[in-house]
Amino acid sequence: MKLNILGCGGSESPDIHPPAFLVDDFLLLDAGVISAVLSPEAQQKITHILISHAHHDHVRGLPSFFDNLIVAGQQKAVQVIAGEETLRAVSEHLFNDAIWPDFSRLPSIERPVLSWRSIEPGPDLHLGDYVISAFVVNHSVPTLAFRIQHQGVSLFYASDMGPTPSLWRQIGQPDALIIEVSFPNQLEDLALKTGHLTPILMAAELALLPQRPPQIFVTHLKTFHAEKILEEIRGLNIPELTILQDGQQFNLRANPR
Questions:
Q1: Which of 63, 53, 64 is nearest to 30 (CA)?
Q2: Is-above-0.90 flag for pTM?
Q3: Is the peptide bond prior to 107 cis by the omega test (within 30 degrees of 0)?
Q4: Which terminal Cβ of the chain has fewer Cβ within 10 Å, N or C?
């Protein structure tokens, strides 16, 4: 499984993009950035987009992306997949013909470039031979985490989240995990109020895993506090941790069990 880090910032600056993770060229996990970093050809390979929640930094890449598809004469709809509350928020407040055109009706109702598809915790969703599972996580708005399984490789994307102790015994044994740390330890109160993690809170979550994955990718650092967060993460001495950077690529492999 190929993982391309399009963006992994918890806040934006000239060289840091909001969250977006491309799996095997066709499946996007969140859409903080798309067209600003991908060529037109790469954009046209995307067929499905999983959205964890409706916050602006996780959906802001969608309008320009679908605008590009219209201009390119795209003939097939790209599926935007999310929980019902997230789909409703994005369709009503973004693609509402006021903020941005409703691309679920363009270029025609019969052949739009955007289609909505709901996913909820419970039954798996199959995209060819990829299996997608959804899990509820604790955040300030309804938010889902996703497990993506393909040919024996399992990636778990936790997205934005605060402490969610019940999560970790549900997800099996992923080969790689993407988890957030937004604030330094001294801002734990703010992290908890807004549904985010600090290094100490992240470590407590990881301690609940029956077995730590061989690759744990840390994302969503707030730029203003990044130096302090990095120092505190390194102090945890968790060898599996990798701090993500925009533009990185990883080839994920199955972990022998």
A1: 53
A2: yes
A3: yes
A4: C
